[in-house]
Amino acid sequence: xxxxxxxxxVPSTGRLISxxxxxxxTTALNNVAYRFISVSGQIDTSLGCNLLHTQYNxxxxxxxxxxxxxxxxEQQRISEILKRLEExxxxxxxxxxxxxxxxxxxxxxxxxQCTDERVNMVTPVxxxxxxxPGELAQADMxxxxxxxxxxxxxxxxxxxxxxxxxxxxxxxxxxxxQTMDDLLTLPGxxxxxxxxxxxxxxxxxxxxxxxxxxxxxxxxxxxxxxKEPQKIERDLMKKIPQDEWIALSHxxxxxxxxxxxxxxxxCEECSLAELCPHAQR
Length: 281
Hints:
- Helices cover 48% and strands 7% of the residues.
- With 281 residues, it is α+β, with helices and mostly antiparallel strands.
- Among the domains are: 66 residues, no CATH class; 75 residues, Endonuclease III, domain 1 (Orthogonal Bundle), CATH 1.10.340.
- Strands 1, 2, 3, 4 and 5 form a five-stranded mixed beta sheet that branches.
- A hairpin with a 6-residue loop joins β1 and β2.
- α3 packs antiparallel against α9, α6 crosses α7 and α10 packs across α12.
- It is elongated and about 60 Å long.
- The two termini are 40 Å apart.
- The N terminus is likely disordered.
């Protein structure tokens, strides 16, 4: 029975080839073994997992080459992106230091237009002075501003911190809410901050965290053409399985900091380069 194939994969490099003639030509030139991967994503083993082909030994007639649809090709590409990110960053997690949902929420508010490293330098002093929402709700504004000054926009952030603490203390019995709708009622909290708390602390995949790194990489990887965070998030939620939402954000952030930098992306050493439209320019 003929088998339909989506891609040929070079085991040594992971390169994907989606054209039959290119597969035969490349194999003849390089004399390497290819793995045949079916439309379902499974490696066919009926004739052996690896088959060596040259110009004198083309793809066996028992194999039927089926050109995948654009949707299938994109799904395969996205699956490979997720796989490689997991291999590169299997234990990626939030870089903001925290011991509770409250600390994570406050740190995330502070992280706007500020590096995580700087926030992590400030929060130990902040939480030593105000260990919970009850204490922070009663904070002296000038003292609070001075503690967080180095994170930038400290006046607005101080209002958000104290306002969120007041609402948590008075309306949510001192507990950080566990739903998107409730979190969005807190001063200084938009979808990004809410998604950080829900995903990182509560393990709830209600959406995708879209920060500056996720935004940049999503665009470069061709996962979205949008520029606004909420529209980018909607595109990612449509294309990425829900059980990958939380990990995807952490991994893209790590990849953005280490490799896919804003000004000088290191495409030559990027494991996603062959899957990335930006790197192929």
